[in-house]
Input
Amino acid sequence: MHALIVEDHQEVSRWLSTELSHAGWTAHSAATVQTALTMARHGVYDAILLDIMLPDGDGLKLCKEMRQFTNAAIIMVTARHELTDRIKALDDGADDYLCKPFAIEELLARLRAIKRRTSTDLSSVLEFGDLRLWPEERRAEQNGQPLHLGRREFDVLQVLMENTSRVMTRDQLLESAWGYDFYGESNVVDVTIRRLREHLASGQLTITAVRGIGYVLRLIHET
Output
């Protein structure tokens, strides 16, 4: 498992790199937006740990740009605690948000959850309506056109497609896509569902909210 640490404070970057290496990860570091972009475009990473405040730019904007070309899990690791920053990060494609200071055990627990999900042996293809999804390749198409989904968006859509006749509760989606050891905001499922609806807006499917229960993937003519 390979991680890219985007952090301009050298002591924090070295600490993260050392701890990740002890946990079996291969860690790479970047201190600026431009260096991070170059490394992310030319390397293959399972996770990107991304600070918001960088010397040559905004980590939130960098997250949004990275999400256009990578399916790596993006975890914002920042001293900014504001709820608006958390929401914007999730809207812009981040998979998780961790506030400094934090225990390294918490970060490693979230990374272990990512590793479990990406190493699971899954069926070759899921199909429903005009949507096709290849879990092993982490690839999805709608009406033959590729869908560019973030990691959490893909995971939630996969769960919904595996259970097309069932209403999935928020807790079930949270457990399946984020894992038992998720410590983040409780509204991440709703934020991810909103982004998925935007991705699916031009097709035959929609994600319907069932009041007091959760969500279900349905053909539009069934809603």
Notes: The longest helix spans residues 104-118. The chain has two domains: 2-118, 126-222. Residues 153 and 196 are 6 Å apart (CA to CA). The helical segments are 10-22, 33-42, 59-66, 83-91, 104-118, 151-162, 170-178, 188-200.
